[in-house]
User: Which sequence fits this backbone?
């Protein structure tokens, strides 16, 4: 089975891309979903996160995503510590999931493929690239994203031009119709 990573900065359209691949019947693994699940359910991770960030990391035993986001994107060292804790467990979940798939290829979606040095885990990588002004517009519509917070998150990620240069496919996301057309061409190459 061909393993394809889909990456891009926050707000680039990774979720839209993987929804399209899913509509084609492609198995999808969304790293952030597994990370959130593990951070809520894995007792070891919970205790380590509380040691790093404090009791406010959880409210009523549920991950306080807003608080964690506000704290870790202001502290590069803390962000790395959290990623170093969570991502090996996500990778283990991915490998278990991968063994159960039966398709020509599968998709692993994560913003941090290059940041976590996991590009060698994939046969191909697709980077979704979007104009920065569009990213700001999208994130402001989601709520809880000030320009300051968007800047913090974007600055913590590898620039999308660099991600594209390291990827097998750089897909510019300027419209859903155009994005889907380009993704379908990639799909045909791997089916």
Assistant:
């Amino acid at each position: 089975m061909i393993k394809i990573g889909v990456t891009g900065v926050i707000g680039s359209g990774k979720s839209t891309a993987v929804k399209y691949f899913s509509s084609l019947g492609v198995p999808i693994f969304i790293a952030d979903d597994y990370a959130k699940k593990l951070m809520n359910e894995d007792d070891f991770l919970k205790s380590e996160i509380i040691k790093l960030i404090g009791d406010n990391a959880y409210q009523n035993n549920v991950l306080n995503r807003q608080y964690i986001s506000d704290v870790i994107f202001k502290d590069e060292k803390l962000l790395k510590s959290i990623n170093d804790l969570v991502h090996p467990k996500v990778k283990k979940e991915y490998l278990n999931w991968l063994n159960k798939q039966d398709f020509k290829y599968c998709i692993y979606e994560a913003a941090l493929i290059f940041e976590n040095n996991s590009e060698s885990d994939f046969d191909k990588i697709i980077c979704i690239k979007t104009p920065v002004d569009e990213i700001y517009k999208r994130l402001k519509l989601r709520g809880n994203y000030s320009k300051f917070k968007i800047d913090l998150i974007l600055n913590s990620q590898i620039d999308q031009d660099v991600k594209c240069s390291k990827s097998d496919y750089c897909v510019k996301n300027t419209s859903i119709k155009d994005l889907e057309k380009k993704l379908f061409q990639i799909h045909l190459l791997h089916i």
